[in-house]
């Protein structure tokens, strides 16, 4: 077990060094297993109090697991050596609510008024479900999980609001209760699903036409299960049209030093 | 069960009306059972982003369960009709980090730049422990739970930091594991204890000399059990010496409309 920990830590360090140097810019699904991976939003401090309010009021789609100091690219509660300017494999820049460019480093774009907010991510519960023998079709088929806009209203927080984005995974009916129980253990990773069954009931017209990601089949003995999704926060940030927002590119998450099973997501030496 | 709900809601409404009218200014321990009660801190918006950072980085002593809009005395995610200017039985005002006065209404002190932050409170887990047959000595003896400064360092968040304040309850050794399990179910109410046993190990010199509250005896077959305490946040606010902070008076909490057992502390109609 200690050997395994040491191997994990060495692999983590090598992976982060490669990402930092720009030598790895791929997605992070399945990498550094058992470490908490994070959605990242970086925004000007003038909007940060409202954004934290919004996230705190919508904890299922937007579970805050870390916040940086204004102008400081470190995230000491998520790891001892994180520099958010370099440590994501791939970033997206949005100006005035519109996609501007995708980059692999943001040192050139960093501003002294920037605040980094880290949110939990679905990789955590997917790993736990797979470990429990519950298959994830998009993983087996090497697809990006399908994501949908819904009619589920969000709590307004300052200037941020709108409706929830969800991800969908088809499960066999008999797996649903256990999947709910397992996911409920990870409130910092979207927690239990928000809806099981009829997509129309939450405002989704066609499961085969996701708004993000790629469609996966739902077999006759399966039901579609919907989880609150981190894209919700990106959506809210873009709708607000603020001057500059930087996020991770989909699937290209921050790999933190926090164990996924940690009761409290605060890094300790 | 529905009758019970109706009775609870009627009692809640009557209690809040009495508090709002200034007709009840006593403590709230044991009132409105099964409703989430909250520590309250009200501070100028200029310090609110730092305070949220501090709380998010120290979720055991400072579990955020609600945040108001700047200048808005309502807390819609904690209940449909809350007005924080009137709805605590008793408030304390601190100016420049020093106690100024205790009042039963803050309408005269409310400012357009104020932000209300609500944190979970120990009443939640105490009720759950008592329901499980684990006695709470300070409740049985009608005392305020003893609280202590410790050497446990907090994560710094902006201008806020310092060390943790804990509360202590003596438990029989055989009750400790079950108490930990039960409390772990309430992360929004300080969660599992932070320490069991030797007070000196966390920097407490004398159990019979608490820094707040009243001492209770630890019997030979008992161990002292320590929980992260909401006074931690008040301490950090006062140490920062900001111009005006308003808090609840100890034990005089906000009674929210949220069920203590709610998976997510967001009020829904």
Properties at a glance:
homodimer, 269 residues, alpha+beta, PSTPO5379-like, PSTPO5379-like fold, four-stranded antiparallel β-sheet, 11 strands, globular
The mean pLDDT of chain A is 93
Strand tally of chain A is 11
Question: Which descriptor suits the 3D outline of chain A?
Answer: globular
- Counting DSSP H or I runs of 4 or more residues, the number of helices of chain A is 6
CATH superfamily of the largest domain in chain A: PSTPO5379-like
In the CATH hierarchy, what is the architecture of the largest domain in chain A at level 2?
3-Layer(aba) Sandwich
Oligomer: homodimer
Q: Pair with the most extensive interface?
A: A-B, 28 and 28 residues
Q: Tell me the CATH topology of the largest domain in chain A.
A: PSTPO5379-like
- What portion of the residues of chain A fall into strands of 2 or more residues? 25-35%
- Largest β sheet strand count, sense and barrel closure of chain A: 7 strands, antiparallel
Write down the secondary-structure element order of chain A.
HEHEEEEHHEEHEEHEE
Q: Rounded to an integer, what's the Rg of chain A over CA atoms?
A: 18 Å
Category by helix and strand content of chain A: alpha+beta
Structural domain tally of chain A: 2
Overall helicity of chain A: 10-25%
Q: What do you see in this structure?
A:
2 copies of one chain form a homodimer. By secondary structure, chain A is of the alpha+beta class. Chain A has 2 domains: 2-122 and 241-259, PSTPO5379-like; 134-232, PSTPO5379-like domain (PSTPO5379-like fold), CATH 3.30.2040. Chain A has 6 helices and 11 strands. In chain A, a hairpin with a 2-residue loop joins strand 3 and strand 4. In chain A, 45% of the residues are buried. The mean pLDDT of chain A is 93.
């Amino acid at each position: 077990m200690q050997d395994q920990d040491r191997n994990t830590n060495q692999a983590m360090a090598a992976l982060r060094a490669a990402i930092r140097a720009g030598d790895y810019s791929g997605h992070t699904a399945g990498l550094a297993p058992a470490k908490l991976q994070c959605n990242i939003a970086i925004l000007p401090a003038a909007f940060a109090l409202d954004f934290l309010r919004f996230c705190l009021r919508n904890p299922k789609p937007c579970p805050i697991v870390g916040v940086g100091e204004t102008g400081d690219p470190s995230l000491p509660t998520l790891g001892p050596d994180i520099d958010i300017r370099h440590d994501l494999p791939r970033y997206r820049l949005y100006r005035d609510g519109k996609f501007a460019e995708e980059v692999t480093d943001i040192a050139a774009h960093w501003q002294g008024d920037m605040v980094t907010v880290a949110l939990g991510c679905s990789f955590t519960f997917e790993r736990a479900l797979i470990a429990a023998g519950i298959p994830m079709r998009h993983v087996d088929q090497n697809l990006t999980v399908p994501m949908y806009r819904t009619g589920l209203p969000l709590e307004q927080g300052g200037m941020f609001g709108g409706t929830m984005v969800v991800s969908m995974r088809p499960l066999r009916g008999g797996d649903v209760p256990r999947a709910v129980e397992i996911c409920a253990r990870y409130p910092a990773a979207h927690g239990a699903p928000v809806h099981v069954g009829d997509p129309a009931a939450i405002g989704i017209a066609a499961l085969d036409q996701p708004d993000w990601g790629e469609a996966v089949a739902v077999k006759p003995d399966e039901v579609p299960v919907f989880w609150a999704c981190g894209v919700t926060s990106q959506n809210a940030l873009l709708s607000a049209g603020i001057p500059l927002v930087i996020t991770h590119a989909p699937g290209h998450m921050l790999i933190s030093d926090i164990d996924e099973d940690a009761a409290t997501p605060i890094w300790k030496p």
